[in-house]
Amino acid sequence: MRLSVIVGLAFLLTSLGLRRATINRHIRGRLLLSASLFAVFTLAAAFLDHLPLAENTREFLRDSVNPLVMVFAVINLVVALALNPWKFDRLPDRFPGIVQDTLLILLFGIAATLILRDRILAMTAVGAVVLGLALQDTLGNLFAGLAIQIEKPFRVGDWVMIGGQEGNVSEVTWRATKLVTKEGNFVVVPNSVMAKDTITNYSVPTRRMRLHVDVGASYDVPPNVVKSAISDALKNASELSSSRPPEVRIADFGASAVTYRVWFWIDDFDPDDRAEDQVRSYIYYALRRNNITIPYPIQIEMSPEEGGIAPQKATVDPGLLASVPMFAELSESERAQVLAVGRPVMYAQGEAIVRQGAAGHSLFVIRRGEAAVTLAGTDGEVARLRAGDVLGEMSLLTGEARTATVTAMADCDLLEIDAAGFRSVVLANPSVLERVTSVTATRREELNRHREVHAVAAAIAEARHSLLSRVRQFLRL
Questions:
Q1: Distance between CA atoms of residues 469 and 461, nearest Å
Q2: What's the CATH fold of domain 153-201?
Q3: How is the chain split into domains, by residue range?
């Protein structure tokens, strides 16, 4: 008895000490269970002979039950320490919780068979029938869970669809697989049910996946024009994968529209709803900018002589250009001429209105919204444009490539004036050109100063970094 107490205390203290030394919560939980069982074993070994029990009961507890408690605690401790990472708070991929539990039960069953030899042989026939009937659902879940671990159709962290439920796999236990849906709901799917259902894994063989949205466009616009407008609009879509460009295909000729199917890739299933929203939004703004109608699902009776219904041009405030410094020196009639050759366009929040280095031949006046100006090689914004500001004037006047990237920070309404329209105004009144270019020259000087300041700052930072690297290399740090 004294030896049993000493052994029990030794294992108890060892379990508690190991539990304090690891950060793995799974190991800590198993060691707590083992420590509790070691405490029960020690107390039973110390006081069992002093309890008022029948002799056969005391003998059964001392010779059968107490050793089984000790064996289970030891096996649980060994499994916890042997199969789990000591320095990381996670379960190993090869030995998830269900596999560890199965191994624990298997080893304990072998030990119990050796300890209770005669009793087990007597109870085997009856016990097997009773347990088989009572635990058939539980055993079905257990074996299905083991099959899942062997085949590994998914892992913890994968996005899957099981039985019509989409979610992220959070845990696989001996009884069920647990999913967390995008709505934040917790779904528990019994393993036996899952073994009979189709499993779709969105994260294998790669987390990148292809989605599509459909959009209808007017029959009056050639397909290649629509495809080009959509493709250009999605070049700056941040939710899409940069590894593969979107593809636009004609999907159907509907009753009132040509249906285009836009295929695009995302890097993970998680943001699929955000990606679809961004694609639809960018397509809407792109089609509207290019005067491409998204028809209502209605039928219109048209005569061949009518030649279609001309789209109405959006109304532009006649006083818009009066508040723009670039055109402030012009007379009211001259501003009206410039206004007449412009066309209203819209850009969605996050879209690039112009990109640095891209070809351009038009100027934009912001009617509503806000846009940020950035330069390649610099950090952050160099300017913020608001209603009344202009951008792209050098492209309009000289045909130069865009000198900066301008991104819509909110939905923006703009007036676009292209080179052909502006040329007609200048030909009618040559003095317009001199007054416009004087303001443009001032804006260009400001942009050049921004570039010089950032270039000097970058050169100083690079020199400091180079000196620091040389010192570290010399001192072997």
A1: 12
A2: SH3 type barrels. (2.30.30)
A3: 2-134, 153-201, 209-296, 320-455
CA 396 to chain centre: 40
Tell me which CATH homologous superfamily contains domain 320-455.
Jelly Rolls (2.60.120.10)
Q: Are 392 and 447 in contact (CB under 8 A)?
A: no
Q: In what order do the strands lie in the sheet with 405-408?
A: 352-354, 405-408, 370-374, 383-386
The tokens describing 355, both together, are 């990109």
Rounded-to-integer distance, Cα 218 and Cα 170, Å: 46
Q: Which amino acid is at 395?
A: S
Contacts of 65 (CB under 8 A, 6+ apart): none
The sign of the dihedral angle between the CA atoms of 257, 263, 269, 274 is: negative
Q: What is the pTM of this model?
A: 0.53
258-266 and 352-354 as β-strands: parallel, antiparallel, unpaired? unpaired
**pLDDT for the residue numbered 468:** 56
* CA pair distance 412, 408, nearest whole angstrom: 6
Contacts of 387 (CB under 8 A, 6+ apart): 366, 367, 368, 369
Q: Which DSSP string do the residues of 61-85 spell out, in sequence order? A: IIIIIHHHHHHHHHHHHHHHHHHS-
Rounded Cα–Cα distance for residues 110 and 78 (Å) = 15
For residue 275, what pLDDT is reported? Answer: 93
- DSSP one-letter code for 126: H
Name the DSSP letter for residue 221: S
| Strands lying side by side in the sheet with 362-368 | 343-347, 412-418, 362-368, 390-391
pLDDT at residue 134, rounded to an integer: 47
Backbone angles phi, psi at 52, to 5 degrees: -80, 80
Alpha helices (H) along 254-309? 272-289
**Helices (DSSP H) in 136-221: which residue ranges?**
136-151, 191-195
Name the DSSP class of 50. Answer: G
25-47 vs 2-21: helix crossing angle, rounded to 10: 160
pLDDT, tens only, 327-354 = 887 888 888 999 999 999 989 888 999 9
DSSP string for residues in 185-205: -EEEEEHHHHHTS-EEETTSS
Q: Which residues of 356-373 are buried (b: 16+ CB within 10 A; e: fewer)?
A: beeebebbbbbbebbbbb
Residue 128: Cβ within 10 Å count = 10
Both tokens of residue 141? 């879940």
Q: Which fold has domain 209-296?
A: Alpha-Beta Plaits (3.30.70)
In eight-state DSSP terms, residue 48 is G
CA atoms within 13 A on the CB side of 463: 6
Task: Name which of 434, 448, 369 is nearest 403 in CA terms.
Answer: 448
